[in-house]
Amino acid sequence: MTHSAAQVSYLEDGHTLRSWLLTTDHKRIAILYFVAITFFFFAGGFAAFLMRYNLLSPHGLLGSAETYNRLFSMHGILMVWFFLVPAVPVTLGNFLIPLMLGARDLAFPRLNLLSWYLFMAAGFVALYAVVAGGVDTGWTFYTPLTSLYSKGHVVAAIVAIFIAGFSSIATGLNFIVSIHKLRAPGMTWYKMPVFLWSLYATSVILVLATPVLAMTLLLLAFERIFGIGVFDPAIGGDPLLFQHLFWFYSHPAVYVMILPGFGVISEIVPAFSRKELFGYKFVVWASIAIAVIGFLVWGHHMFVAGTSLFSAIVFSLLSYMVAVPSAIKVFNWIGTMHKGYIHFDSPMLYAIGFIGLFTTGGLTGLFVAALAADVHLTQTYFVVAHFHYVMVGGMVSAYFAGLHFWWPKITGRLYPEMWGRAGAITIFVGFNLTFFPQFVLGYLGMPRRYFAYPQQFEALNLLSSAGALVLALGYLLPLGYLTWSLLYGERASANPWGATGLEWTTPSPPPTENFAVTPIVTQAPYQYEQPEAASHE
Amino acid sequence: MSDAAAHEFQFSSAEHRRETAISGIWLFLATEALFFGPIFLSWIYARFADPNAFDAGGRQTELTIGVTNTALLIASSFAYSVGLAFMEFGSRRGMVLWLLVAWALGAAFIGLKFGVEWRMDLAKGLFPGANFSVHGPSRNGAQLFFAFYFFSTALHGLHLLVGLALLAWIIFQARRFTAERHSPVRVVGLYWTFIDVIWLILFPLIYLIGRAS
Question: Helix, strand or coil for residue A141?
Fold first, then answer.
């Protein structure tokens, strides 16, 4: 690739605050988002840390059940809407989609900037809700607790989520239109990297599910403000209707959180196995299948809420079905690694951790999708452990994998590799230590959301809290050495991993216009060559 | 972006940019459809609990104003599409004239809905709560109906206000558009017509179903 001196890197193109806050460059907007979601990740993580501190003692160390309720509500709200849902799409997605497409920007750059401002506005309202005293409803906002009884700042929390939703919709819309309209010449749908397919599937959910949540929360706000509304059983409304509408968004939203992770892993596993992605079309269509079937399984959150047996059986079967495409992906990643020439660099360590933890989370999902088992396990720590294996073990690992993989491209600097590996391993160990005991706790019957517990659960809770300390350390490590690398890291070449993909053909960091000449795509993605050394088997 | 720039650097041509804008607005309308979807669904579902009481609420609505407003909105969208046709033939003057008609009809809807109809509803004590004026066995169901009524008409009205602002913007920017380049006119037109579609579902839910039984 020619690196002409005339090309100014996007980081050098303007140094004023204004050049950042009014930018329409997708790469700069990605950086703005990075800063914001890193803050929310640590804020939500801090709440979790205090929760684990409280649970060190069977009587609760915080001394107040109300405080504990507000902490786990804050943890859930911040982590779901201000970290997990946006994390990969708005940062890596924003940065990489145009680069992977061979385009100069997203289709609607100003809409992209607007989505960041909406996100920030939502974030400030959420922080206001927290500082003013928080909410005690959990992140699910079930009526009639939220609409008629709760004393917390429910309306502020709802407004925050409502605004964040429009930020999500704007992002999803921008991605879908960009992927349809801005592919470089020669980049057919089947020549697109899987990361793009994953974000396409994610965006479909964002665009079609988020408005349902927005409307549901508006109806809830109406009820709370006027003291009477459509979920109010006193006038013949139905609180269960709220749960239906809420989970119609919130279950697909689970796939919003994990699908981008699948995309990241599908890029990293081939690059560090020096092999073509095994079963490309299966991986691609599995993403689409998850996005479609994901819309049909929401009822499994309400097996014990008084739905009919018939609907419960249907939702149970559909929930089993959605596991199939996820399993296909896991097998494809393993198939890619099989007989590959595997490099254990930090992104790959995170990716391998992802595969193991996500599979554990996915398989335990089948336990709770089974009607009879769910009656026993629902509302226990088993469920908490299950979705943390998917969301934290899976999604956060994938986010870190992607962050390390594309860090040289984004910042133009290399991070210290040994620290990277140490971080990946610490996070893996800390995570398992925190959440594996919770499977056992849940199986033994410890309910979730309780601030105190019987003596018999003390040992496992201590183990879990000790794990949380290791996990916290694991998360602080990347914060430290990645920040360090911004100032002192070695300069990165255009393609330090020797990976395929259009983003690696640009200089690191890329120039503002990405490509001086629009690239022409002739090859399928992942055309890796196996070194001779690998063929000795 | 200035008028001079034919297209931003991510597009290969002005035509490419136009197509992209049209794709964007269609996708946005899909989002809007799912935004209103939960109201329609909940509305129909809520009626099942006690149809007679729910319909007793529906019969309190002002049918004459509802019908007039429906006619106003459809006429407004018709006027808009005539304006768009004028633009396609390059007549900026014709477009502005018809868009002014469309704007006036939309504004008339707002005036009638909130200035007259809502005022009548509130005077009759139809806002749900302690002072709700329907008594007897239908009281609860009728309140549920009016919770939906006020919520959804307010939201629809808000969409109309945004539409009116967009129409005004198109009218003030009219000199920018030519027979070849006028995609904002098309984009706003799709949104403006979509608000009608929402109303055409709300209209029977509000005014007709209660009277049919």
Answer: coil
Which residue among B8, B11, B34 sits closest to A208, beta carbon to beta carbon? B34
Query: Is the pTM here over 0.90, yes or no?
Result: yes
Q: Contact A177/B24, CB-based, under 8 Å?
A: yes
Rounded to an integer, what distance in angstroms lies between the CA atom of residue A413 and that of residue A442?
Answer: 44
pLDDT digits (tens, 9 = 90+) for A447-467: 999 999 999 999 999 999 999
The tens digit of pLDDT for each residue in A179-234 reads 999 999 999 999 999 999 999 999 999 999 999 999 999 999 999 999 888 898 88
Q: In this predicted complex, what is the ipTM?
A: 0.92
Could you give the maximum distance between any two Cα atoms of chain A, in Å?
75
- Taking each helix axis from N to C end, the angle separating B139-172 and B51-58, rounded to the nearest 10 degrees, works out to 50
pLDDT of residue A533: 54
Residue partners of A149: CB distance under 8 A and separation at least 6: none
CA A420 to chain centre: 20
Three-state SS at A341: coil
Q: With CB atoms and an 8 Å threshold, state whether A211 touches B141.
A: no
Q: A205 to each of A85, A173, A208, B34, B167, how far by Cα in Å?
A: 11, 10, 5, 11, 31
Torsion of CA A246, A252, A253, A255, to 10 degrees: 160
Residue of A nearest to B7 (CA): A107
- How far is it, in rounded angstroms, from Cα B182 to Cα B164? 18
Q: What percent of chain A has pLDDT over 70?
A: 98
Whether the bond into A144 is cis, omega within 30 of 0: yes
Asked if A235 lies within 8 A of B147 by C-beta distance, the reply is yes
Residue B45 has a CB neighbour count (10 Å cut-off) of 14
Cα B212 vs. chain centroid, distance in angstroms?
Answer: 24
Helix (H, G, I), strand (E, B) or coil at B131: coil
Residues of chain B found within 8 Å of residue A295, distances taken between Cβ atoms: none
The residue type found at A322 is V
Query: Which tokens hold the place of A195?
Result: 């990361």
Query: What pLDDT is attached to residue A513?
Result: 92
Element (H, E) at B107: helix B92-110
Q: Side-chain half-sphere of A255: how many Cα atoms within 13 Å?
A: 35
Dist CA B114 CA B110 (whole Å): 6
Residue with tokens 């959605």: A322
If you average pLDDT over every residue of chain A, what do you get?
94
DSSP letter string over B146-210? HHHHHHHHHHHHHHHHHHHHHHHHHHHTGGG--SS--HHHHHHHHHHHHHHHHHHHHHIIIIIHH
Which residues in chain A are contacts of B34 at CB distance < 8 A?
A: 208-209, 211-212
| A2 vs A9: which has the higher pLDDT | A9
Measured between beta carbons, the chain A residues lying within 8 angstroms of B9 are 104-105, 513
Compute CA distances A168 → A1, A176, A517, B13, whole Å.
Answer: 35, 12, 31, 28
Model confidence at A144: pLDDT above 50: yes
DSSP secondary structure letters along A204-257:
HHHHHHHHHHHHHHHHHHHHHHHS--TT-GGGT--HHHHHHHHHHHHHHHHHHH
Per residue, what are the HEC states of B32-75? Answer: HHHHHHHHHHHHHHHHHHCHHHHHHHHCCCCHHHHHHHHHHHHH
DSSP label of A345: -
Report the pLDDT value the prediction gives residue B4, as an integer from 0 to 100.
Answer: 39
Q: What share of chain A is helix, strand, coil (3-state, %, to 5)?
A: 70, 0, 30
Dig out the tokens for B151 from the structure.
């919520």
Averaged pLDDT for residues A81-100:
97
Is B140 in Cβ contact with A218 (below 8 Å)? no
The phi, psi pair for A9, rounded to 5°, reads -65, 150
